[in-house]
Structures are given as C-alpha cells and as structure tokens.
Amino acid sequence: MTNSENFYRRDVFLSEIRDCNDRDDQRLWKEHQSMQISFLQKRGLQPSSRVLDLGCGPMRLGVALIPMLSEGRYFGQDINPETLVYGEEVLRQKGITEDAPYTLFASDQFDLSTVDCEIDIAFSNSLFSHLTLNSILTCLLRVKDVLAPKGIYYSTFFALERGASWLQPCSRDKWGRRFDTYSYQDPYHYEVDLLKAVASQAGFRMDLLTDFGHPTQTMARFRQLNRSWL
Description:
This protein is an alpha/beta fold. It is built from 5 helices and 10 strands. The strands form 2 sheets. Strands 1, 2, 3, 4, 5, 8, 9 and 10 form an 8-stranded mixed sheet that branches. A hairpin with a 2-residue loop joins strand 6 and strand 7 (177-181). Helix 4 (133-146) crosses helix 5. The mean pLDDT is 89.
C-alpha cells in the first residue's frame, strides 16, 4: 500500500480532535461509535467475542468495545503507528489500562501475524473506501487466515448505484457535507458485483446488510465459501 493510495500512512486520522476535551460530544465521533457498537451487538457480539478492528484509527470503536469484552479480546490494526499512539492516549483517558484485553499493531500490508487466536468478528468502517482493489483482495485474504470457522467479516464501502458511470465522480452527502467518490483516487467507489467477484476470489461469499445506518456507505458481510450457513 503506497502513500499515494492511502494518505493515512502520513496523517493521523481525526487529528483535528486530538486535543479536544469534548471528543465524546463530537458528532463524527459519537454517532459513528454508537452506530458501530449497536450494529455489532445486533450481529452477535458477546463478552467472549474475539474482535479484529481493521483500520481501527484512534480507538473510536475500541474505547467503547474493549470494556465489553470481559472474556474475549480486541485486536486493532492501523496503517499509521502515530494513530495508535493517539489511540493509547484515548484509552488511558477513559481508564482502560495496558493490561486490558486488547492488542494494537501497525501494518501497511494487513500483516495479521500479531493475532494469536481465531477471530469471531472482523470489522472495518470506512476502510475499503480508501483502498484499491488489489489492497482489498489482500485484506480479505489476510482476514480469512485468522477467522474462526464461523467467523464473519463486516466492512463498509462506497457503493456505485446500478446505471451510474464508473468513470465519473459520484456525489455524496454526509450530514450536509458534500464530497465525491472516484474510480481512480481516494475515496474510491465500487460496483457491488465487482466487490462480490473479488470476495469470491478470496474465498468469501459477500452480501449486503441494510441495518448499519451509515449516511453514505454500504455494509458488506463476508462469509467463508467453504462453510455451511444454514
């Protein structure tokens, strides 16, 4: 993964709120955190769950999730080591000590060798939106290696509606903030069938879920092809 592909290698994600005293009142932080926790709870999150948070950023999800895992474990991966340093600060501010059940690690190629157990739930919010297809395939292959037999990977992406031009920018509106997604630069959009084909190449069956609640991104569920899902 190159700097030109993903600028988070250089810049600390959400750096504009690093020194905020009211982080929990920031809409981007608070609503996304609540949305993610609610979704995972509806999808079977338990205190014993082993969770992999890909592109975990500054612990927006982790700071709420780690205290819930009384018997399980949280693994957070991010491309930027500085972001994880910030994430540790966030955890300490919330009273989460270093001996809590979590592990943070940096990798720009989705090296998940730090994960030392089978993962029940893998999750990423706004990760595929910053990745090329090559990196998405790499991510899926790496995740498959650490998933438990019935483990599931949930990840959001910018879906291109049927009939929309792949080559043209696609306009989005997130809480009144307008921006475009592209086929050729970050943030990327993808046709659903294209991502399904990539998922199949990695050994996953992909389908879409409608109960996540993100204002601009679509939630995909990845389940292993060689498993029965009756």
